[in-house]
Amino acid sequence: MSNQGPEAAGRDPHLNTPTGKPRARSVGLKHRGIPGPHNAITDVPGVEVGYQTLIEGENVRTGVTAIHPRGKANPGDPVAAGYFSLNGNGELTGVSWIEESGTCQGPVTITNTHAVGIAHAGVVAWMNQDHPELTDVWLLPMAGETWDGYLNDINGHHVNEEHVIQALRGATSDQPDEGSVGGGTGMNCYQFKGGNGTASRRVGYADTIYTVGVFLQANFGRRDELTLTGVYLGEELKGDNPMSETRASPPPGGGSVIAVVATDAPLFPHQCKALARRVSLGLARTGTSSSHFSGDIFLAISTANPGAFTDSDLARLRPGGYNQLTFIPWGNLDPFYEAVVQATEEAVANALIANEDMTGRDGHRTPALPRRRLAEILAAARR
C-alpha cells in the first residue's frame, strides 16, 4: 500500500493529509515556527517516505515504514548521524556504528517490536535486489520498533520481507500520510489512537534557508499527562480509556516512540546528536515524563556534505586522500534546536489528530482523540 492517496483539488497540506485526514492545525492548534511546504520530513530535499499497512481480519493491525535519507536511488552515500536514547526500553539497530563513526548509510525502517529482525532482513534483501553493488561486504541496517500488541497479533509474524521491500520501493518525496499507517498502524499515544506524525520547520542561516523535518512513530504516554500547545487535556479527556481497564495493555505510559530528525543543514555528527537530544523537549511539551516501560530513541541526520563520508578506499582516489566538511558553527545552532522542538511537538499532535477509533486483537479498542471536544477546549482556553 502506497503512502499516497488522491489529493483533493485545493487541499491545504498544513490542514489535511494526502488522504484527507485532519492535521493538528485544522482543529485550532497553534504551533510556532515556519513550516515547509508540506510541514513534513519530506520537505528536506532528498528524503523519501514509504509505507506498507497491514489491516487484515480482526487481529492484524501493523505494518512497516521506510525512510530514505538520500532517496531510494542513492542509499550508498553515508550521512552524518547521531542518536540519543531518552529511555532505552526499545530498539533501533545500527546505533553502535552510528556512535562509532558518526554516520549511517541506507534507509531507516520502523515497525512493531517483534518484526525488527524482519525489517532488518528486508533492507538487506532490498539492497541485494536493487543495489547489489553495495552488498559485497556487509550492511548495518537501521530498524526501529514500538509495541503494537494491544491492537495487533504481534506474535503472528504478519510482517514479512516483501512488505519491507514494498515500503522501500514505494517511498516518495510527497507529503506522507499520518495516523494509522505503516509501522504506526497499531500504535497508541496517550491511550488514544496514535501512530505516525511528521512536521517541519524552515531555518535561515548565512543567506540560506534550511529545513528541519521530524518523523515519529508515537506509541507512548498516559492519558492524564496529555498537553497540547500548552493546554492541559488530561483531566478533560480522561473518559473512554479502554487501555486502562485491561491487563493486555502495557503499564500506563509504556509503549515507546521512535523519532527521526532530518535536515539539509551541514552538521558534524556530534551536532546531529545534539539535535536528536532536543526531541526529548518536544515530547515533554506534550506532557510525557518518559516511562521506564517506553523505548524513547531518536536519530538525527544531516544530508549535507554529499560524498564526504566515503570509505577509505574511495577517499584515497581524491587528491591527497582527504575529505572536507562544511558545518554550521556550534554557537549558531539554537534556531535548529528550536526547530526540532517545535516540529516534534506538532508531529505528536498530527499523529493523534489524523486518526479514528480502532478495534483489533481480541476485540481491544482504542478511541481516537475527540477532535470536536478538543476544538471546544482550545477555544475556551483562548478566551
Structural features, described:
It is a single chain. The protein is an alpha+beta fold and 383 residues long. It has seven helices and 16 strands. A six-stranded mixed β-sheet has the order 4-3-14-13-10-9, sandwiched between helices. Strands 1-2-5-6 form a four-stranded mixed β-sheet, covered by helices on one side. A two-stranded antiparallel sheet has the order 7-8. α2 crosses α3 (161-169).
How are the SSEs ordered, and which strands pair?
Elements: E1 48-56, E2 60-68, E3 79-88, H1 95-101, E4 103-104, E5 108-112, H2 116-130, E6 142-146, H3 161-169, E7 188-189, E8 192-193, E9 195-205, E10 208-218, E11 227-228, E12 231-232, E13 257-263, H4 269-285, E14 295-302, H5 312-315, H6 334-353, E15 358-359, E16 365-366, H7 371-382
Parallel strand pairs: 5-6, 13-14
Antiparallel strand pairs: 1-2, 2-5, 3-4, 3-14, 7-8, 9-10, 10-13, 11-12, 15-16
Helix pairs in contact: 2-3, 4-6
